[in-house]
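new request in #modeling-help
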Amino acid sequence: MRIERRQNQPKALLIVAPMLAVLAALSLAGILIALAGVPVLAAYKSLFVGAFGSKFAITETLTRATPLIVTGLAAAVAFRARIWNIGAEGQFYMGALLATVFGFQNFLGLPSFALIPALFLAGALAGMVMLVIPLGLRLRFGVDEVVTTLLLNFVVLLFVSMMLDGPMKDPLAFGWPQSVPIVDEGLLPKIIERTRLHLGLIIAIAAAVLIYVINAFTVFGLEAKAAGFNPAAAKFAGVPFQMTLIKVACLSGGLAGLAGAIEVMGVKGQLSNDLSASFGYTGIVVAMLASLNPIGVIFAAIFTAMMFVGAESMSRSFGIPSFIADVVVSLSLLTMLVAIFFSNYRIRK
Amino acid sequence: MTDIFDILFTVGLWSSVLRIATPLIFGTLGALLCERAGVLNLGIEGIMTFGAMIGWLAVFQGADLWVGLLVAALAGALFGLLHAGLTVTLGLSQHVTGLGITLFASSFSYYIFRIAIPAQNTPPTVEPFQPLDIPVLSDLPFVGPALFSQTAPTYLAIGIAIFLAYFLARTPMGLAVRITGENPHAAEAQGVDPIRVRYGAVMAGSALMAVGGAFLTLSAFNSFFPTMMQGRGWICIALVVFSTWKPGRAILGALLFALFDAYQLRLQNVLGQVVPYQIFLMMPYLLSILALVIMSRSARVPQALMQPYRKGER
Amino acid sequence: MSEPVVLHLDSVTKRFGSFAANDNISITLHRGEVVALLGENGAGKTTLMNILFGHYVPDEGEVYINGSKIAQGKPKEAIAAGVGMVHQHFSLAKNLTVLENVMTGTEPLLGWKSDTAKGRQKLRALEQKFGLSVDADARVGDLSVGEQQRVEILKALYNDARILILDEPTGVLTQQEAEGLFQTLRVMAQDGLSIIFISHKLNEVMKGADRVVVLRAGKVIAERATSQTSKEELAELMVGRRVERPVREASTPGAVVVRARDVVVQAGAVTRLSGISFDIRAGETLGIVGVSGNGQAALCDLVAGVVPADSGAFEIDGHPVAQLTPRDLSGMNVGRTPEDRNTQGAVGELTLWENAVLERISDPRFSRQGFLRKAPARAYCQALIERFDVRGGTPNSRISLLSGGNMQKLILGRSLVQRPVFLLAAQPTRGLDEGAIAAIHEDILAARKGGTAVLLVSEDLDEVISLSDRIMAIHAGQLSPAVDAQGVDARQLGLMMAGEWGGMR
């Protein structure tokens, strides 16, 4: 038996592979559900209904998908250029933090249409800095950015907690760790009244389209891929190697920071320690499920959001720990890796 | 200000240094063994979490403490088998696979823990390992209670480090591990199967990681709770670089690190009014990054690290 | 031959997909014999050796050693049966010592302690017996290429090999080192070892072997005793037809296009080029020969604008290159073909058209305001494909799907298509078959005829002699004085490559 590279990959695999991966993950997690003594199909049905069964459920799922689309894009952009950005969680919080700082101060008394873009920019800038530093360490000292971005996540979380205890503390929160709220002008308008679904979803989808255009139609998109896959050949062809990677890092970190700004401006209105439900880490799964395709990221994010939202109602009905959603999502990353492998290789006897 | 230095001369500080260092020693040795064979194992954070959970759960269900460690080791080896299957046999990206294993192993741990122990206000506890006084040595003034009155797994960690140093440097199998990490083709040309070597190293290394996790729930603390790992696994990955892939230096690195950690914990009591405690808690992570920056240039990385090996392919 | 048969390959066939790399091959080897396996690149030599050594499992056929069949696909079995292999790319761990490399896998894996004293003793004895001296405790990465090859041979001998297989053993050696190697092989054969070496060089086959097996397109075409054949006959057998490599015509060079004066290139504390000077005129080809690793890579990087000179002057077409980027050079119509097509020449994951235009992507034909113009870029690539006869892909296929020769034609094509003022051709035909070599030589000669100044860097002496007007040797980062290609012989170039050019000029 040997492993052989496929001469050409059928395009259909781009869609079939993630479906099979998800199916495999659901089946494996089904075993765990059965072990808990719960009928598997009924449990999955309640999960699906919980996520899509009503207008409200759908808006909840889309609300949950919004930050995941943006962090998924952050991972997809970086991975495509072989920058292993595992720090989206930290970049997300830094983005949320800076957006909140400017959002509750509103120094200039800006109106909504100016303040919202300004807060987005603040969030994105904060995220950029958080990724450009580890990339700089790699380019300058050869330090693997995987480990540094992971470690920085913890630093950022502590920093956020420090700010919530100190300068950003909400005096009206009775010691609860949350910040002073953002002024109303800085909050994102709702798309549908009396739900939590906000403008962020539109922004996220627009970002996905923008990244698609950058990847497919621009010189930068081509150079980023070349620099990521073969630095020596890229340099030989005159691609400004370091600059290209730094730009990619700005884009990726910026997106993760933007995700934080969107979440704090769209859902919570103030910064807290639990703003992110692992959106940064889950973004990596989203990106892989989408095979790094920006449009695919939208659908992958909706799927993952469905798991998390649906698992809560499944948990209520059947008493299964809602951690089952994390199990399915992380399993689907592993099964997707295998699926990607089999779309590139085949086994021959 | 004298307080700050007085801390350095307290027995409590030094005995906690070894306690804090123990899981790091286990984890670093495990990651080091994988990397010497050419496999980066970023599953470490999740594998340590799973080891902490399953070891504790076994003991909670009535198993002996040592059986708890053994169960953790076996579970770790199984995750190692999964990691090796994906990265060695299929040659998938070690970065992404490791991360996937971490996400899976952590969420799997929490799920099982919640199934076994439905949510309660106070987490249930077990009777952990008790300190084991080494005869004679533990009677020495200051040094005795500081260093020679630890729990048994701490001594085990140091023993394993010494064994691993000897194993890598002096035994035929250790040489096989090293040559596989440097150039798997060279191993194969000499009749050593690099795939088997990598499987073995990753499984053994992952077992060590899981034992490191179990130390937390069976010795340092007596209960399990989600998010208790706090990035210890990632710190171990940084410590491997800091130790330049040498087991002896891994102990040194873990001890230095733990000393700093123990010191900052006590410093919080002294300076807590002036400096926010989060600043102290950040230090281990920043220190790890600093260690990476200092060592990355000079370190002699195993040449085949992260390079998949396929038979007959160059 | 009265000596017993030690090795017998019986009707071995190995297919990769539908392609038969080895087709029904049978070979015998006797005790104390040196056999050369002669064939072009792609004839199936390396596949055959990998089967012999157990790296590959053949689809049909058997391998017998000393009359007994050996299990397939298990290097360990081959080693145990007394086969030792010296790979073309050494299988050595550079961070380990010589002794560690040699001793790997020689002891039971479950032992408690490596017996290094015994190993050291055995190694010493082998070194003395065959005249292969090397420091047992040296880190392999610190040794010269010739010494590393000795370690490879010692590894095989240490495993008590009685049959030694060497894959292209002289590819990385100087002329003098190669002669030393063949003397060593002779001593081993007299000691009763049997040796197969793979080569595509007629000279060394005639000199070094007792018998030659000629492979072509996966089949054994002929077997000859070296005493009863000639280079000419072997050449024809190997290629299958008379392939005439194109020949350079006399021409009168024009003005100086490339000018280097005392150029120094350093990488950290290491000096890669120490004070080199040369000129190349329009319509002239300067050939650079040398054993790999003597500064060719630095020279190519310098000329390609990838690495700046630390001191000295280097100009192309009157412009100091230090201030130019690779893109500027492309814009000035400088054609650049890198040493290694896979690492520097092409990004495997990108398509043909993306690779074709990457170095001139800012050209207004291919992009406007940062947006790609895909249609003209694809058309440009299609034109390259047609003009340079690139087979096996369309502009939209991934370039990694092309064979080495076709990839090289595309890379050379993108350098030549605009009739460059200057062409860097580094190892332009490495690893290609005769047909592709002839086509590429044709293109390089046409460029020269059209007035291009050419810098040809190659390890293939025949190629350099037949294409160049003047030849320099590179050794330890220094260039020899130039010699006229007319009437130069391989012996003289060999000495130059070894750095012995004192008194020349």
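bot summary: The CA atoms of residues 254 and 296 of chain B lie 17 Å apart.
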